Task: structure prediction
Amino acid sequence: MLVKVSVKKALITGVTGQDGAYLLRFLLEKGYEVHGIRRRTSTLSTARIDDVYAGRVCPQEQVFMHYGDLHDGVSLMELVERIQPEEIYHLASQSHVQVSFENPLATVVDNVSGTISLLEAARRLNHRCRFYNAASSEMFGITPPPQNERSPFHPRSPYACSKVFTFNQTVNYREAYGLHASNGILFNHESPLRGEAFVTRKVTRAVGRIKVGLQRTLALGNLEARRDWGYAPEYVEAMWLMLQQVEPDDYVIGTGEMHSVGELCEMAFGAVGLDYRDYVVTDPTLVRPSEAHALCGDASKAAATLGWHPRTTFQRLVEIMVEADLELAAEEKKLGRLISSY
Ligand code: G4F
Result:
């Protein structure tokens, strides 16, 4: 007699982004049936998950993709109702801080309305669904480091303001309705899958291209800003751990180590034997109107409760990214054209 084993179902918004791609693989390895929501765009946006999607990583009946948009609450709610996931990981957002100064309304509307729609949808599943909200270290803004769950928020961008709203809304659904809803306050987390507009990847892409002779200089904004940069695959594990706890809660996830953008450049260029001062120029148009100057996560609560610890050092992270982007640059040189990555 065939016994049908019931598998857990998870829904990921933002599945085509860096974190979505790592979380998708992580959950598939754990045996989940995974549903991903992606936005319809005229150019393909699935490069990070094409191997999964094409059935190379897992059986095709274990992964399902749906079209959805953060401002289309009706379809988001309809999707959740249809899929009936046990876990929702809400990762999608307009996540670029500088862009949020240029498009403040779109950033806030998308980030806020998507979160409310999904919380509402989760609530209607009557406690059968747990909810993860991707909050952000940007919420701390100019609160001095190290920052932990008790540090006050002082957001410094439309993006950060929108994340403070989603954080509070998630707490409110927990308190008002008893929803198992948790906030992950993740500090910067990077990898070769990071989008090229974020500073780590912008630097490592430039290092690769400069090394093989495809680029001459790199324009950056504020070199003094300091961040706590960790390795993204480890951070998606923390998201999952939060939803496995008996009680929902909010957790800071970071390495506890802080480096400046200048130090990042020094290390990345140094990894291929170059001095960044020969290549990096500063461009005032890349400096933000207001900045979170120094962010460094104290993740001791996550260590004590979730058993989560960062494993990859900043130096190793930079090496991983430089190695990957050197390979990509060598490929570009061979092809005689630039490859648009993510
Ligand atoms: O790489 P960034 O753009 O990341 P940022 O602003 O810290 O935010 C990222 O991490 C947050 C925490 O996880 C997320 F919530 C958010 O969605 C995003 O993923 O910039 C890092 C620092 C900033 O201080 C910025 O001013 O690098 C500085 N910077 C200097 N020159 C630059 C540049 N940033 C970018 N993107 N591009 C530059 O040319």
Remarks:
- The pocket of G4F is lined by residues 95, 97-98, 136-138, 186-188, 197-199, 202, 220-222, 225, 227, 261, 286, 288, 291 (CB under 6 Å).
- The mean pLDDT is 95.
- DSSP finds eleven helices and 13 strands in the chain.
- The chain has two domains: 9-191+230-253, 199-226+259-290+312-334.
